[in-house]
Amino acid sequence: MNINLTLIGQTLTFFVFVWFCAKYVWPALIAVMVEREKKIADGLQAAERADKDLELAQKKATQELSAAKEQAAAIVDQANKRATQIVDEAKEQAKAEGDRIVTAAKAEVEQETNRAKEALRSQVATLALAGAEKVLGQAIDAKAHNDLVSKLAADL
Amino acid sequence: MAGGQTSTEYIQHHLQNWTYGKLPEGYTRYDGTVLSESTWASAHSYQEAKDMGFTAVHVDTLGWSIFLGVLFLFVFSRVAKKATSDTPKGLQSFVELIVSFIDSTVKDTFHYKNRMVAPMGLTIFCWVFLMNFMDLIPVDWLPSLAAGIAGGDHFFFKVVPTTDPNATLGMAIGVFLLMIFFSIQQKGLIGFIKELTFHPFAPPTKGLAIVLAPLMIAINFILEFVSLIAKPISLGLRLFGNLYAGEMIFILIALMFSGGLLFGLFGGLLQWAWAVFHILVITLQAFVFMVLTTVYMAMAHDNHDESH
């Protein structure tokens, strides 16, 4: 337990160890620990940001979805309207066409009737004469009775 | 107890360091030979160790403390070199645990910018802990081994450096020198002297009372100087006292091993119990030494003029 040079030796050793630790041990370890701390903080921050992003995306998706729905409804509405319109138009057209056909038929019928009347008119004289000849049993002077027959035909 | 020592001899033998020193010319050695000139030699007796005076070295104290310090620095620097900022594994986790513990402790007490204090805290804590830890190795193992290798019962070998006041006071002196260095660096030489002389009683600067100023300064200086000197001495002696007492109790318990089977078993039980308790003491003393060093460094950085 004598105090001797060991005292100074121990002091010098102490300084050397502290110097070594301060130079080669402490800074490296602290740097690693600080770096890891930063990494973890960054990771947490990124996770938080991703969470927020997800929320935003979800909100946006909902918005888009409702907009699309609205648009679809509008389109269907319009289509319905258009369909009704087309049907109406078709109906009108059909009606017009029908009318036209009916009118044309009527006109043709009238024409045919007139034509038939004309034909009949032209044949009435002959038929009447032939009939009369049979009734009288003798030939009739066509010329003498032509006026009579023509009058009859005209009355027809 | 080797070679029929008495209990007193056994204890004395355990408390003597391996001393290598200079014996003066004309000195009569343990075996009766008279030295014709001053010689460096290992002490073979307590008296020789004492007579070597200041020009001697405790080889075991220095050897073990350097070995343990190098061991600590070797392990830590290896870990530091390989450390990754990814998930730490095994030894790195352990080392980081200690480092972050020291870091937070130092930050709690030391609020100034200094890249020296925290590493110093780590060095002190681990080094002192390892030196204290040697106390848990049964007291006879390493000395017996060393005596067996060196041959001869006179061979002194103490394995716990912190039970040598040279070691603890040596470290305390280191802390003390750093304290003074940082004081002067932070406050300047004038500031440091002012701190020693103008506190706690501010000397009068005006009027008739100025004649009392030298007296006040003298009183201040006595008070402050004593408290300044007391810091390293208490720092070193606290560690030494705790470990010396612990070592002494281990030696006393070890005495029982020569007293027969019953005493031996009882001694074994006691040694185990004391070792368990001592784990607390060695950790606590290492921690206290570190915290006090940090506090002293904080005091050295604390500028009174600015805080008042």
Binned strand content of chain B: under 5%
Outline of chain A, from the CA principal axes?
Answer: rod-shaped
Number of separate helices of chain B: 10
Give the end-to-end Cα distance of chain A, rounded to a whole number of Å. 172 Å
Shape, per Cα inertia axes of chain B: globular
Largest sheet of chain A: none
- The percent range for helix content of chain B is 55-70%
Task: Assign a percent range to the helix content of chain A.
Answer: over 70%
| Mean of residue pLDDT values of chain B | 89
The helix count of chain A comes to 2
Instruction: Count all strands of chain A and give the number.
Output: 0
Structural class of chain B: mainly alpha
Summarize the structure.
The complex is a heterodimer of chains A (156) and B (308). With 156 residues, chain A is mainly α.
Provide structural commentary.
The complex is a heterodimer of chains A (156) and B (308). Chain A is mostly helical. Chain A is built from 2 helices and no strands. The longest helix of chain B has 43 residues, at 213-255. Chain B has 308 residues and is mainly α. Chain B is globular. Chain B has 10 helices and 3 strands, in the order H-E-E-H-E-H-H-H-H-H-H-H-H. Chain B has helices at residues 7-14, 46-51, 59-82, 90-109, 117-133, 141-150, 165-197, 213-255, 260-301, 304-307; strands at 19-23, 39-42, 56-58. In chain B, helix 4 packs across helix 5 (117-133), helix 5 (117-133) packs antiparallel against helix 9 and helix 7 (165-197) packs parallel to helix 9. A 3-stranded antiparallel beta sheet of chain B has the order 2-1-3. The termini of chain B are far apart. Chain A binds chain B through residues 1-11, 13-15, 17-18, 20-22, 24-30, 32-33, 35-36, 39, and chain B through 15, 17, 19, 21, 49-50, 52-58, 61-62, 65-66, 69, 72-73, 76-77, 79-81, 83-86, 88, 95-96, 99-100, 103, 115-116, 118-120, 122-124, 127, 161, 164-167, 169-171, 173-174, 177.
